[in-house]
């Protein structure tokens, strides 16, 4: 298994071999080796981290060490927005991100982060058939952002609070943590709560200090951030199936040999699907542990009411037409 420590040793060895020679775009000009430093905000205990390590191992094996990936959890390389700017500048850095943040560069791609946009992993796989979505990805590439995979799905997001939630009305007046992008903010607002932009690492103290009353997250995030210590109720609204994008620099990607490009994409897609399926399989075990630790789980809130309420997010942001076009292209609706 490729570890971050192993990848770091590889990088140090390459640097030593270069004897101080210049190196651009993550390439060792003397040996033809390439490196990618990959950043994500999740804890090492979360399934995505192991999935990224599996991806790194597969790429290293298939390229005989010609392309290595160093995986940095918990935003060790920096905050997501700053990393994406560095990627645009051509740095050999990758970032796990979502459609909401990419919507700052191609506005309509944020539709994929809207309420009830995709219902399951099979629908996410079919999104590759959408000409509209492919057009968005092409636009991102022109802005320096190469999406190499969006087969990474963190399961459904639910509301986690300290009081019961069964309908959108139950969220009225509650301050719910969510990322700061417009689609996140409008989605939470449409579903009945007051959105509060906050980094994931600030959620625990934010709840303790009363800055927020809860959060909307996937189940794996709860033990990953020990949030069961400060949140007592889960309501399975399933309002967003969180599709993640693995993004690298277009300039850096184009600098790779064609074979390496293909391997990087193929193994990212393969690891993403495997990790996404594994996360679905782990949900029951996570729920059982949370219940044992005192959390109350509402498995049957009024999802139809939440689905209807969520329409307002698309209307407010002018994304209804984009959603309908993509749904038509993948046979949904």
UniProtKB/TrEMBL annotation:
Pfam families named in the record: DctP
PANTHER family: C4-DICARBOXYLATE-BINDING PROTEIN, PTHR33376
PROSITE patterns xref list: PROKAR_LIPOPROTEIN
Keywords: Signal
Protein name: C4-dicarboxylate TRAP transporter substrate-binding protein
N-terminal signal peptide: none
Annotated TM spans: none
Domain of life per record: Bacteria
InterPro entries according to UniProt: DctP_fam (IPR018389), TRAP_DctP (IPR004682), TRAP_DctP_sf (IPR038404)
Species this chain originates from: Promicromonospora vindobonensis
């Amino acid at each position: 298994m490729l570890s971050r420590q192993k990848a770091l040793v590889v990088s140090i060895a390459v640097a030593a071999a270069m004897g101080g020679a210049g190196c651009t775009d993550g390439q060792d000009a003397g040996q033809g080796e390439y490196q990618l430093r990959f950043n994500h905000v999740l804890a090492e205990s979360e399934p995505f981290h192991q999935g990224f390590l599996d991806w790194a191992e597969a790429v290293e094996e298939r390229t005989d060490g010609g392309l290595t990936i160093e995986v940095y959890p918990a935003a060790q390389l920096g905050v997501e927005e700053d990393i994406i700017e560095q990627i645009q500048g051509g740095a050999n850095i990758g970032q796990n991100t979502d459609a909401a943040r990419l919507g700052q560069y191609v506005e309509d791609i944020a539709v994929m982060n809207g309420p009830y946009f995709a219902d399951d992993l099979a629908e996410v796989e079919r999104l590759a058939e959408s000409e509209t979505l492919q057009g968005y990805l092409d636009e991102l590439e022109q802005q320096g952002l190469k999406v190499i995979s969006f087969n990474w799905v963190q399961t459904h997001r639910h509301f986690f609070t300290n009081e019961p939630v069964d309908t959108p009305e139950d969220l009225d007046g509650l301050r719910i943590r969510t990322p700061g992008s417009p689609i996140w903010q409008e989605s939470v607002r449409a579903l009945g709560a007051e959105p509060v932009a906050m980094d994931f690492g600030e959620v625990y103290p934010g709840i303790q200090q009363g800055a927020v009353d809860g959060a909307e997250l996937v189940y794996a995030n709860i033990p990953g951030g020990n949030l069961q210590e400060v949140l007592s109720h889960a309501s399975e609204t399933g309002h967003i199936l969180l599709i993640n994008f693995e993004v690298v620099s277009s300039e850096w990607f184009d600098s790779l040999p064609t074979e390496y490009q293909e391997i990087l994409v193929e193994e990212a897609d393969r690891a993403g699907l495997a990790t996404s399926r594994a996360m679905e399989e782990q949900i029951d075990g996570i729920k059982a542990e949370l219940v044992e630790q005192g959390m109350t789980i509402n498995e049957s809130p009024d999802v139809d009411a939440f689905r209807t309420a969520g329409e307002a997010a698309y209307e407010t942001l002018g994304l209804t037409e984009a959603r309908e076009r993509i749904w038509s292209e993948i046979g949904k609706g």
